[in-house]
Design brief:
The protein is globular and about 60 Å long. Helices cover 29% and strands 11% of the residues. The two termini are 35 Å apart. The chain has helices at 30-34, 38-48, 107-113, 123-130, 145-153, 166-170, 185-195, 209-213; strands at 23-28, 51-58, 135-141, 179-181. It has 2 domains: 18-60 and 105-199, Alpha-Beta Plaits (2-Layer Sandwich); 73-103, no CATH class. A 4-stranded antiparallel β-sheet has the order 2-3-1-4. By secondary structure, it is of the alpha+beta class. The structure holds adenosine-5'-diphosphate. Residues 117, 122, 126, 156, 174-175, 177, 180, 183 line the site of adenosine-5'-diphosphate.
């Protein structure tokens, strides 16, 4: 049945005010997965009080590593042929057409994600690094999460990353610097869209909000 909350019901879930809903993208890069640092990174964000709203492990592939595309892509939800644009006029059983976005993670995703860096001399090495093994993509939410996360991650260059930051504590070299974090609220919105589908983000109410934010 549908649950209807009374306006003054103390158990009614409260929508967080918008300033608490700022989101940022964090990637735990392949070096960190190989070095079993995923939990250490997650722990820092949990301990700080940020809220995890999306997470997945994925391998980004170069085109040569990808299997040839299937001729027809069945709908991932109903396994019927109601794919992209409803070419067949929707699902034969009347289930609403699911619009599939291609989410096979390939080099194109990294080209979008690192659009500003494509002309840099280290870009080919960066692509090789980011496709060398699985990475963990996460979305964290909270007050000023973009700025706080950049502070927690530290300098791009490990040598100047402050002790106590993720890179300052776990990374030895700029080319193996453990994590990615969005650098502005606008960038975060774009990057989250590159890495996640809308329904992969989970809205939930954390019980400690009044103790975390006052
Ligand atoms: P950040 O990740 O701190 O936002 P940038 O956007 O400048 O830094 O660079 C993106 C990523 O490219 C870095 O995190 C790092 O993995 C890689 N990178 C940057 N500069 C170099 C470099 N000089 N040599 C190798 N890799 C680099």
């Amino acid at each position: 049945g549908v649950c209807v909350w009374g306006d003054n019901d103390p158990l009614r879930p409260r929508a967080a005010p918008p300033e608490l809903q700022e989101k940022t993208l964090v990637l735990v890069k392949p070096d960190a997965v190989q070095r079993r640092l995923v939990g250490h990174v997650i722990q820092r964000f949990e301990r700080r009080g940020f809220k995890l709203v999306a997470m997945k492990l994925l391998q980004v592939a170069l085109p040569t590593q990808l299997p040839p595309p299937p001729l027809r892509v069945p709908c991932s939800r109903c396994h019927a042929e109601c794919w992209e644009g409803g070419a067949k006029g929707g699902h034969p059983l009347g289930v609403p057409t699911v619009t599939l976005r291609c989410h096979q993670a390939d080099r194109g995703l990294l080209d979008k994600h690192y659009q500003q860096l494509q002309q840099k001399p280290f870009y080919p090495a960066l692509l090789a690094y980011m496709t060398s093994g699985p990475l963990v993509a996460m979305v964290w939410e909270g007050y000023n999460v973009v700025r706080s996360t950049r502070a927690m991650v530290g300098d791009t260059n490990s040598a100047t990353a402050a002790a106590g930051t993720i890179r300052g504590d776990f990374s030895m070299h700029v080319s193996r610097n453990v994590v990615h974090a969005s650098d502005s609220v606008e960038t975060a919105q774009r990057e989250i869209g590159f890495w996640f589908q809308r329904d992969e983000l989970v809205a939930w109410e954390s019980g400690d909000r009044d103790y975390t934010y006052g």
